[in-house]
Amino acid sequence: MKVAVISDLHANLEATEACFKEIEKISVDKVICLGDLVDYCAQPNEVSILIKQKCDTVILGNHDEAQFNYLLSEGFSEQAKISSYHTRKIIKPEHIEYLKTLPRIYTINELMFVHSSPFEPHNYNYVLDEDDALFNFDYFSQKVCFIGHSHIPVIFKKSGENISIINDGKLDINSRYIINVGSVGQPRDRDPRLSFGIFDTADFTYKNIRVSYDVKSASNKILKEGLPDFLALRILEGR
Questions:
Q1: How many domains would you assign to the chain?
Q2: CATH number of the domain where residue 21 is located
Q3: Residue 49 sits in which domain range?
Q4: What is the pLDDT of residues 20-64, one digit of tens each?
Q5: DSSP label at residue 107
Q6: 128-153: per-residue pLDDT in tens?
Q7: Is 105:140 a contact under the CB 8 Å cutoff?
Q8: DSSP conformation letters of 122-176
């Protein structure tokens, strides 16, 4: 089974469309989305429609939950809070109802999918380094846990009690992994190209895919919506 794992679309229609075009070229068996369909960029309704049409499973992200659990957005950064308020004004009710149905965790065979971390998924913790990863390995039993949330692609490998960061490619079936697939709509690793992952269960391989898209158009739409300039600049620079 070949699985495309996408995350953190953040209302970026140009990036989302480019992502699905690339997935169609690869020909996968499943598309699984790790959440955060909304906020930051300009088109939450259009992105929500595409995700519902194209994905087999969708996980709840913190920005998604903030559209019906308003208290959650009070802990966001100032730019994120402004964006969340804006989304509430323009998103259609049917998409809010859809977000309410999304699960926090999905598992299939030896794979787990969650937006932020296997430890307390409802609290949206970050897994940023080896220490975070070591702690989180105790909170799932599967071979691989896929995450998003930080917008930074990375692979943590656990062999015995040793934790390391590795490159994509052929994985060791005797080890366990936490894989962050990065962000489609707002990468933060200084690379503005959208990021997602392809995992093949047959040969136990993982590949991080990077694709260029019309980032200038997406950035201009953010400005036209009256959202913070920082958000428009951020996707241009991938930070």
A1: 1
A2: 3.60.21.10
A3: 2-237
A4: 999 999 999 999 999 999 999 999 999 999 999 999 999 999 999
A5: E
A6: 999 999 999 999 999 999 999 999 99
A7: no
A8: GG-----SHHHHHHHGGG--SSEEEE-SSS--EEEEEETTEEEEE-SEEPPTTSE
